[in-house]
Each structure stands twice: as C-alpha cells, then as structure tokens.
Design a protein that fits this description.
132 residues; alpha+beta; Thiol Ester Dehydrase, Chain A; 6-stranded antiparallel β-sheet; 6 strands; 41% strand
C-alpha cells in the first residue's frame, strides 16, 4: 500500500539532498526511498557524503514512526542513529529500504539498508525513534 504522508520530502532539509519516497507500507513495516547522486551530495573525494546516508535513514524512519503514532496524539523524533559505511557510492542512485524491527510504546527501532544501483549493500543503519 502506498501512502501519502502529510510531509513533503522536497521541503526543508530533505529537499536539499533530494530525498524521494517511493513506497510506504506501515502494515508490513517497510519504507522505500531514493536519492539521485549529484555533486551537491558528494564529498571532495567524489563519493557520497556519509551524512547523506544517515539523513536518509533518519528522515524516512522518523516519518514512518510519526505517521503510525500521530493519531494517538504522539510525536516521533530520532533518538539514535548508528550508521556503518560498507562501500562508497560514486554515482547513480542511492536506494534505501527501512524495516521496522520493534514497535514499542516509547521507542521504535528500524534497520535501514542503503544500496547502489547494482543492489550492493553500501551502508547499514540502525535507527531508534523516540515516541513522545
């Protein structure tokens, strides 16, 4: 099921690096997104800046958690972001797949796989989202 969140990723910080939501299926606990690689997301050495990987994970998991809890008057914000960089991305598209691993009363935990166009694993991110 595709879901239109009331938040537009092209607005604000996410718009600076080009985040695009592809699919949100909270029932299955998955979110897919991508970012096209441009010079503005690269570090001087020519590879995608690690902060972009961390930002993608933070944004999509915070949005997904918020959407699931907001009807109950709750908010959601990142509490912890642990990003492991496994291989660089130099061009093409950054692909992200977030899967919820824990849906608690006060925290949600997500795992996010960042891959390149060849579906090679480039980064693993564990996000903990606070629910308040």
């Amino acid at each position: 099921m595709d879901l239109q969140l009331p938040y537009a990723p092209e607005a604000g910080f996410d718009g600076l690096y080009g985040l695009v939501l592809d699919a949100v299926d909270l029932e299955a606990g998955e979110i897919r997104a991508h970012v096209e690689v441009t010079d503005k997301v690269k570090q001087p050495a020519g590879l995608v800046h690690g902060g972009v990987f961390a930002s993608i994970a933070e944004s999509i998991t915070s949005m997904g958690t918020w959407y699931a809890v907001q009807a109950g008057g709750k908010s959601a914000q990142g509490l912890s972001n642990q990003t492991s960089f496994l291989r660089p991305i130099l061009g093409g598209t950054i692909h992200a797949l977030a899967r919820v691993r824990h849906r608690g009363r006060t925290t949600w935990v997500w795992e996010v796989e960042i891959t390149d166009d060849e579906q090679r694993l480039c980064s693993l991110v564990r996000m903990t989202i606070a629910v308040r």
